[in-house]
Specification:
- The structure holds two protein chains of two kinds.
- By secondary structure, chain A is α/β, with parallel strands linked by helices.
- Chain A folds into two domains: 202 residues, 3-Layer(aba) Sandwich (Rossmann fold), CATH 3.40.50; 113 residues, CBS-domain.
- Helix content of chain A is 41%, strand content 23%.
- Chain A is built from 18 helices and 16 strands.
- A six-stranded mixed beta sheet of chain A has the order 6-7-8-3-9-10, with helices on both faces. A four-stranded antiparallel beta sheet of chain A has the order 2-1-4-5, with helices on both faces. A three-stranded mixed beta sheet of chain A has the order 11-12-13.
- In chain A, helix 7 packs across helix 8 and helix 14 runs antiparallel to helix 15.
- The longest helix of chain A is centred in the middle third of the chain and has 18 residues.
- Chain A starts with a strand and ends with a helix.
- Chain B has one domain: MetI-like fold.
- Helix content of chain B is 84%, strand content 0%.
- Chain B contains 13 helices and no strands.
- In chain B, helix 2 crosses helix 5 and helix 4 packs antiparallel against helix 13.
- Classes of the chains: A alpha/beta, B mainly alpha.
- Chains A and B meet through helix 4, strand 6 and helix 6 of A and helix 9 and helix 10 of B.
- Chain A: One of its GO terms (cellular component) is plasma membrane.
- Chain A: Belongs to the ABC transporter superfamily.
- Chain A: It is an enzyme of class 7 (translocase).
Chain lengths: 391, 282
């Protein structure tokens, strides 16, 4: 992975004398103190982040946490008061007007919370706006805009006006407009929070799909923890203009850096974040196919189990044996193979807990986690069902 | 005790008067230049309007109304115009129309760019706002007096005072309209690397257009409202007819000239409003 964007010690202060106020920030004065004393608002305070190429990087925070201010620093809609932002090794904060224009035209595009569409233009004219600004010839830009509209599934809506479309469709136009410029970096400022929940979920999934195809570097802002953890490869949590923690969703869930984040992730719907891999246990008892009935009974007895999985010597899952069947077979003199059942549930390691819930309800036995036919672990029903209860 | 102390009287009026005298003497060529330029444009435009066959003009108004409003209002406006002709005020109406149109065009040429500048500069807005208030609330007769000194009796002071009176609405509304373009839309335009000029011409002005059109409509109505006042400095047209009727206490003439102004006002207002509405629909 290569480093795409390096945000170094970026601060943004609003007010008539931001540079002077910066000193107070460096002295460690709090936001409230500074506001009271000087009337300046500290939007972002010395934030440093590294963003990798092709990564879906989510910045999460409540309103007033500075996340929107920060994302606007990345295309210089806000000029940072101090600090530097390196994109492909070049510091964009030193750009003059001309270079900045080129940077915005070629490298970076933005999707807005309330779509930011031009309602005097048709959909296709909206989508081709970035190309028009770059003076791409009409025919060419219509072609690109057309294919961009098709990417987001809005074929046939070219000549409508934005207010003839639903919210979800309008945001697709916003996305198509950003994609038409073929930027390396896509900034998304709470793109789905103005949409109703059903549409939001649909758009999240589509964005993940699209990202798998296009492999852009996406910087995504949200105030919704579930959204952040669902779509983010890595998540940065912001509070009062500062970044509190950066990490993968699972790492943050496992080890919240402080009480604030812990409180934040408490309401999270874990079943949508945690994968089977994260909770599965190594089976403490297993029976090989060649071991036979007696070993199976012994294994269950010594481990206090009522059932055990049977594997071959390559760890391929063959079946399940219960203690009742085993004891009965023993007196009847039957073999291990004859009493194996496939009356159990299997799942993949990257399945979400959410998908395991139904399986846990249907079966009496632990869920077998199988990767390429091999048994890699078990998820006891208790774990799945208790995760449901803790919500 | 309760009366305002007489010792405190002090007149600024004299100084204003002196300034006007000084300007009249020393800036004569400047004012003459404006005067001659305006007069040239105006008289040619007026000649054209008068030269136009009456039925052609009625037809143009009818078609405009049909296009932007409805056939029934087209018919109504045509009847209005013919009525004005029947009253014997056709040429006067054309003269008034010419005054209104040229004042409005000049107001727009000055007002829209200044309004845009106002939207961009907080400081200019701060200075311009009270001046605009003054232009609108100062009794119009007051600035007719210096206008008389600079340009003499006749059309030019009439046009100028009409412009002063009609300029504020379009300037104010242009300012408001540009400022009213949603922040995110401006950001969206900038985020794609638009230049200032592209932002203005491709996004801000088109987005502001419905409000600017409302400003143009208001400006036109203000210009029309000045018609009678302007006639006091010798501008011809419908206003002068009203004024003469007033002098002669001629109710009949007053009514005919007055109702002609109302007809003209209705036609201009409805058509400009209808045109501005077409911008709103999108």
């Amino acid at each position: 992975m290569t480093l795409k964007m390096e945000i170094k010690e970026v601060s943004k202060i609003f007010g008539p004398h931001p540079k002077k106020t910066l000193r107070l920030v460096k002295e460690g004065k709090s936001k409230e103190e500074i506001l009271k004393k000087t009337g300046h608002t500290v939007g972002v305070e010395r934030v440093s982040l590294d963003i990798q190429e092709g990564e879906m990087f989510v910045i999460m925070g409540l309103s007033g946490s500075g996340k929107s201010t920060l994302i606007r620093c990345l295309n210089l809609l806000n000029r940072p008061t101090s600090g530097s932002i390196l994109v492909d090794g070049e510091d964009i904060t030193t750009y003059d007007r001309h270079k900045l224009k080129k940077y915005r035209q070629k490298k970076i595009a933005m999707v807005f919370q309330h779509f930011g569409l031009f309602d005097h233009r048709t959909i296709i004219e909206n989508v081709s706006y970035g190309l028009e600004v770059r003076k791409v010839p009409l025919k060419k830009r219509m072609e690109i805009a057309q294919s961009s509209l098709e990417t987001v599934g809005l074929k046939g809506w070219e000549d409508k006006y934005p207010n003839e479309l639903s919210g979800g469709m309008q945001q697709r136009v916003g996305l198509a407009r950003a994609l038409a410029n073929d930027p390396d970096i896509l900034l998304m400022d709470e793109p789905f929070s103005a949409l109703d929940p059903l549409i939001r979920r649909e758009m999240q999934l589509e964005l993940i799909d699209l990202q798998n195809k296009l492999q852009k570097t996406v910087i995504f802002i949200t105030h919704d923890v579930n959204e952040a953890f669902k779509i983010g490869d890595r998540v940065a949590v912001m509070k009062d203009g500062k970044v509190e923690q950066v990490g993968t969703p699972e790492a943050i869930l496992e080890n919240p850096a402080n009480d604030y984040i812990e409180a934040f992730v408490k309401d999270i719907d874990r079943s949508k974040i945690i994968q089977a891999e994260g909770v599965m246990i190594k089976p403490n008892a297993l029976v090989r196919l060649k071991d036979g009935l007696n070993v199976a009974i012994k294994e269950m007895k010594s481990n206090g189990l009522s059932s055990v999985y049977v594997v071959d010597k390559e760890m391929r899952l063959k079946g399940l044996v219960t203690i009742d069947d085993a004891l009965e077979a023993k007196t009847a003199g039957r073999s291990l193979e004859s009493i194996m059942t496939d009356n159990f549930e299997i799942a993949a390691p990257d399945d979400y807990m959410q998908d395991l819930i139904d399986k846990a309800i249907q079966t009496k036995y632990p869920i077998a986690i199988v990767r390429e036919e091999k048994l890699v672990g078990l998820v006891p029903r208790a774990i799945v069902l208790s995760s449901l209860a803790s919500q | 005790m309760f009366d305002f102390p007489t010792g405190l009287t002090f007149h600024v009026g004299n100084y204003v008067s002196d300034l006007v005298d000084w300007l009249t003497v020393h800036w004569k060529t400047f004012f003459d230049g404006i005067s001659n330029g305006l007069l040239w444009v105006f008289s040619h435009f007026n000649d054209f309007l008068i030269w136009m066959p009456w039925w052609f003009f009625v037809l143009v108004i009818f078609l405009l109304a049909c296009q932007f409003k409805s056939v029934s209002s087209g018919i109504l406006f045509a009847i209005f115009l013919i009525l004005i002709g029947i009253f014997g005020y056709w040429d006067e109406m054309m003269y008034t129309l010419c005054l209104v149109i040229s004042s409005v065009v000049i107001s727009l040429i000055i007002g829209i760019p200044l309004g845009i500048f106002m939207a961009y500069s907080k400081r200019f807005e701060m200075i311009a706002k009270p001046i605009l208030d003054g232009m609108q609330t100062m009794p119009t007769f007051v600035y007719l007096i210096p206008a008389l000194f600079f340009f003499g009796l006749g059309l030019i002071p009439g046009v100028l005072s009409t412009i002063i009176y009609a300029l504020p609405p379009v300037m104010r509304l242009t300012n408001l309209a540009i400022r009213g373009v949603p922040e995110e839309v401006v950001e969206a335009s900038l985020s794609f690397g638009s230049s200032r000029w592209q932002l203005l011409t491709k996004v801000q002005i088109p987005q502001a257009m419905p409000t600017i059109m409302a400003g143009i409509n208001q400006t036109t109505m203000m210009a029309l409202a000045m018609v009678v006042v302007a006639s006091m400095v010798g501008v011809k047209g419908l206003g002068l007819e009203v004024l003469t009727a007033l002098g002669q206490i001629d109710v009949a003439k007053g009514f005919e000239a007055g109702i002609s102004i109302v007809f003209l006002a209705i036609i201009i207002d409805r058509i400009t409003l209808a045109i501005s509405n077409t911008f709103q629909k999108k």
